[in-house]
Specification:
Largest sheet of chain A: 8 strands, parallel, barrel
CATH class of the largest domain in chain B: Alpha Beta
Radius of gyration of chain A: 17 Å
Structural class of chain A: alpha/beta
Shape of chain A: globular
Strand order of the largest sheet of chain A: 3-4-7-8-9-10-13-14
Mean pLDDT of chain A: 92
Oligomer: heterodimer
CATH class of chain A: Alpha Beta
Low-confidence stretches of chain B: 1-10
Number of helices of chain B: 8
Strand order of the largest sheet of chain B: 12-11-10-9-13-14-17
Radius of gyration of chain B: 18 Å
CATH architecture of chain A: Alpha-Beta Barrel
CATH topology of the largest domain in chain B: Rossmann fold
Number of strands of chain A: 14
Chain lengths: 285, 288
């Protein structure tokens, strides 16, 4: 390991130093413990939690995840144990893993987002907040439905206002090529420190229920969105996400102007995918 | 009230591995294929009731993202190769057809062993094992472990017909009594598992019932066990996307030890659950 690929070096994101540019995407790393069975989380640039809501959410009916060519359709319904349980049992463990802990939040109202930001901002071990503004299965789940770019901006403004200084806000927006630049500009103006470009695309389960589409199928779209935002907003700090599975994918997103990337669906296929991408970026054997 | 069973293990032994396995052989037995693989580290960590998650490879690799999970049927020491694992696979879809079509020497990405295994009794009590179709696979190594502990093992093996029956012949080595049930009556008695449960529970005097079968049969076993005052351990098979606890796709409705109803994951909180803890009607969607 004498040659170091610049792709594996530490990066600065929203004022935070990440050991490398590879983060675990929200909802694809369990509570962190399940993933840690395959290698230390400290090897990664950061860990984004599944979206946490104020109150526990039981999640949706089965089937929740269905395979589709080159992708997964999912309608998990943002199952999570709620903020209190997360703070009591999951965050303390995550905070000891030697990686950056980014807590993804989702709310039913602006007030709920603000409350989540206020309480998480005071909790030791939280490196940053990621505001989930692009949940593809939001309709019918009681989650604040971000239909328009100004909706996203108003959520970020509410979070930003109630978050203690020094905790950066990452805004995860929808990869809708037509509106992505407008969305990115809106959340940045509202106080977001960085923009996560990429989430599952709105899709439908075979039975018609709202779902998200993730995986290699959405990667070219996410890359296009990162490129567009980079061109229009050259100062913005971007995190790329969407179907990224290996070191080559990471390189193409970094080349398109992302500071860091998130690996999600690939971990469901291979729990070592993120660690492997980091090792390959380093040129490790 | 506590279950008279125990699962003692160290943290290290519980850690699953992600490995590249090598196919040693693929044999067609009845309607199923038996795959023997060299999967370094997995046999050593195996306990009955655990499974492996396989990545579909070949031409469809990367287009088929969900993993395919299989019960570990057997762990065998093989000279020159280290220990091997054996899986029982029914070729029903793209992934299983790819897997059963592999030639010796082919590479397979797999993660395992995964899941919570069957809990073993502390005392040498009488045990009833109920398996149906390929799902009966994890019961064979379980029978051996139970016999080692001095438990009297009674086995019920069931299937649609003879081709969908795992070898009862082999089962006779570790079981005191074997009952065979087929839906068409081609071997053993004709009918469903539920038809023979009362009789074998009475005859065996089983204090613990272990079951690995389709959900409807598992429900019937859980109900019958409770009626006979026996504990039940049911291996719940759900389609698993990741198999590793990451995706929350495999929700199973249970009542926790605290009496609170909740959804847990089949892959890491199971696949083996106490039969009296699963909310079967909700899981199956209807009465069996």
């Amino acid at each position: 390991m004498t040659v170091t690929d610049p792709g594996a070096a530490a990066v600065e994101l929203a004022g935070l130093t990440l050991a490398n540019p590879v983060l675990v995407a929200s909802g694809c790393g369990g509570t962190g413990r399940e993933l840690a069975a395959y290698g230390p989380l400290a090897d990664l640039g950061g860990f984004v939690t599944r979206s946490i809501s104020l109150n526990a959410r039981p999640g949706g009916p089965l089937p929740r995840i269905v395979e589709t060519p080159s992708g997964l359709l999912h309608a998990v319904g943002m199952q999570n144990p709620g903020l209190d349980h997360f703070l009591a049992t999951e965050l303390p463990w995550l905070a000891q893993q030697g990686t950056r802990v980014v807590v993804s939040i989702v709310g039913g109202s602006l007030g709920e987002y603000a409350e989540l930001a206020r309480r998480l901002g005071r909790s030791p071990g939280v490196s940053a907040i990621e505001v989930n503004l692009s949940s593809p299965d939001a309709p019918g789940t009681g989650v604040f439905d971000v239909r328009e770019p100004f909706h996203a901006a108003s959520v970020v403004a509410a979070v930003h206002r109630d978050l203690p200084r020094g905790i950066p806000v990452l805004a995860k927006i929808r990869t809708d090529v037509v509106r992505v630049v407008e969305s990115a500009r809106g959340v940045l103006d509202a106080g977001a420190d960085a923009v996560v470009v990429g989430n599952a695309l709105p899709a439908a389960m075979p039975d018609g229920r709202p779902a998200g589409l993730s995986g290699p199928a959405v990667r070219p779209l996410a890359l296009r969105c990162v490129t567009e935002v980079r061109e229009q907003l050259p100062e913005a700090q971007l995190v790329g996400a969407g179907g990224i599975a290996c070191a080559d994918d990471v390189r193409s997103f970094l080349a398109a102007g992302a500071v860091a990337v998130q690996i999600g669906t690939a971990l469901l296929h291979d729990p070592t995918a993120a660690a492997r991408a980091v090792a390959d970026l380093r040129g490790a054997p | 009230m506590s279950i008279p069973t125990t699962t003692t293990t160290t943290t290290a032994a519980r850690t699953p591995l992600h490995v590249t396995a090598e196919v040693l052989s693929v044999k067609k037995v009845g309607a199923y294929h038996h795959l023997t693989l060299v999967a370094p580290g997995i046999p050593e960590r195996f306990r009955p009731g655990m499974f492996v998650a396989v990545s579909v490879g070949g031409e469809v690799a990367q287009s088929r993202l969900a993993r395919r999970s299989f019960w570990i049927h057997r762990v065998k020491p093989v000279g020159g190769y280290g220990a091997t694992i054996e899986l029982v696979v029914e070729a029903v879809g793209v992934g299983t057809r790819w897997l059963t079509g592999l030639a010796p020497g082919a590479r397979v990405e797999m993660t395992g062993p995964l899941g919570r295994p069957f809990a073993l009794p502390q005392e040498p009590v009488a045990c009833l094992l109920v398996g149906e179709g390929y799902a009966a696979a994890p019961l064979f190594p379980l029978a051996e472990r139970l016999r080692e502990r001095g438990c009297a093992v009674t086995l019920v093996v069931a299937g649609a017909d003879e081709a969908h029956l795992l070898s009862a012949l082999e089962a006779r080595r570790s079981a005191r009594a074997v009952t065979v049930v087929t839906a068409d009556g081609s071997v053993g008695s004709r009918g469903r598992v539920a038809d023979v449960l009362d009789e074998v529970l009475t005859r065996s005097g089983a204090e613990v019932v272990y079951a690995a079968a389709p959900l409807g049969t598992l429900h019937a076993v859980a109900v019958a066990a409770e009626a006979h005052g026996a504990w039940s351990q049911t291996a719940v098979e759900q389609p698993l996307t990741c198999g590793t606890g990451l995706c929350q796709g495999c929700a199973v409705p249970v009542v926790g030890e605290d009496g609170v109803a909740r959804l847990v994951r089949a892959c890491v909180d199971g696949p083996v659950f106490r039969g009296d803890r699963v909310r079967w009607v909700e899981l199956i969607g209807e009465e069996p």
